[in-house]
Amino acid sequence: MNELINKVTKLLNDKTIDAFIGYGQGSTDRVRAIFARTVEQASKLIYTPACTFNLSGYLLKHEVKHLGKLGILANVAALRSIMQLASEFQIKDGEVYILFVNDDASLTEFSDFQSIEAFLEKANIDITPDEKARIEKIEAMSVSERWEFWNKEFEKCIKCYACRAACPMCYCHRCTTDVNQPQWIPVASHERGNLDYHLMRAMHLAGRCINCGECANACPMDIPLNLLTYQLIDPIKTGFGATAGMKADAVYALSTFKPDDKENFII
To answer: Between vectors from CA 52 to CA 51 and to CA 58, what angle results, nearest 5°?
Structure first.
């Protein structure tokens, strides 16, 4: 995609950015993330229908963050991730140079958070019809059936933590799962430890998940982890009127309260 390559080349030459996070050709027909720091590396940038995964998770990685001023090629999920990270004081306005590829292959540049917010107001942020159907099927189950369903799924977990690594909202320098004094989550891959880990992670993502689905995409055991966090989106929106990743100054729904809260969600 010449327009993208030319734009990133200019940004690097002008010293507007020091590195650009985009898509490149991986092994066989796979697409991978690349970090272009030179014009030669920028020439390897691609953008195809296969370039769908959320790159924003790299923005807070220690090795990437210290490359200098970053640029990134963002899809809608990445834009929402950046907004959510901004609301959690992880990214400052103007800190990242953001490019977006439109349907006609032209580029949109976002100079500030306000322009991203205006764009997202008109963007499609719904989950896919297939995901909706799967969630409806789960929600139609009885409590015991849902418990059995998720326990069966979690039994497959090998504790590789690929879901955590792929999630742009899992940016803690030290995760609760890594704490061993005291040990909150059992390390071994067994029924109790797996359940503890995934429920803890879902709880931490309640009101923060921007439904990019990278957790499920990364899972080598095909556990539909995205459906667990997606199920929390509507209750948060209904109960708190909040949708994650839409505004840079949004308040995390589960970290605040109002004296006049109805509290009708408390059983």
So the answer is: 90
